[in-house]
Amino acid sequence: MTARPAKKKTATRTPRQPDRPERTDIRTIARLANVSIATVSRTINGVTTVDPKLSKRVWDVVEKLDFVPNTQARALVSGRSKILGLIISEITNPFFPELIQGFEDIAVDNGYEILVSSTNHDPQRMSHCIRRMLERKVEGVAIMTFGIEEPLLDQLAKRKVPMVFIDHGPDRAGISVLKIDYHHGIRQAVQHLAALGHRSIAFVSGPHHLHSAQSRLAAYNKSMQECGIQPLSEQIAEGDHTLEGGGAAMEKLLALNPLPTAVVCSNDLTAIGVLHKLYRTGLKVPDDISVIGFDDIHIAEVMMPPLTTVQMSRADIAKAAFEALRSHVEATDSKPAPREYKVPTQLIVRESTGFPRGTMTHLRKKT
Asked: To 5 degrees, how large is the angle CA 154–CA 157–CA 159?
């Protein structure tokens, strides 16, 4: 019996896998640029001692491959995160987006990133903000809010994280303060009203527990006395720096007899709330009562009427905050970081201020 020939086994073909793109990392950059890994690392981390020709070769490859460095890995190598924190009180306040934009612009121009957190005036949320900053290993924090508690400050201070505050801050190493010149701007506002003939000038403050609100109220009282006008306690109404707070404060002032002829407000949101309340009451601005704000947020210029206000430049605050933090981060024994930075204020006259009511009638009778 003839044996059947054995069946040939057919080889099973494995489907060809598509070519996988090469993973791009600093080793790839080093190979393609024909330099060492250390040279790539130093170039990407901005070390100035790298030979310019080698640096150019590295950056040419980086651009060709559209390589994005791993910032966390870079921070481990360099020991620097190049991240600055910015803590604000409420993102919905029009004052803060302009501040954030200015701070980010100048930070990015100088090779830093920013991490923004909003507290909404909540201590628990503030604690969360601080924890986020520490987890991301920020190199400094600009605290543009009020009422931060000492234990939270200690968390940053014991890790030697530089801080900058607005108006008021602890007298510790690694801390700077932005001093707003409230008195100059508010004095200009009161003098402007006094020059128009106003002698009954009310003030809507911010919450009295805030240092900034106390500073603005003190500036109002001093400015009134400088103009020879005695400030009256019944003409000072406490607000909360919101539209609603401005309206509620103006309602209290409307109960006065006689009604003040002018109102200076602690911020623009308060002033806009005052304008709205006066409109609902049927009183005209500035014919019946003059109104001045503080901050000069963008919307102030397009109010009806355009709001006369004290300008506190967000660009100036952002620049000063960044410079303060960078001074601490890059400080040397021969050039320590300054403790204080001055931020100027300036009155911007628009159309919400005019002569006291009845002034023009009296002038016509005299003529």
From this structure: 110
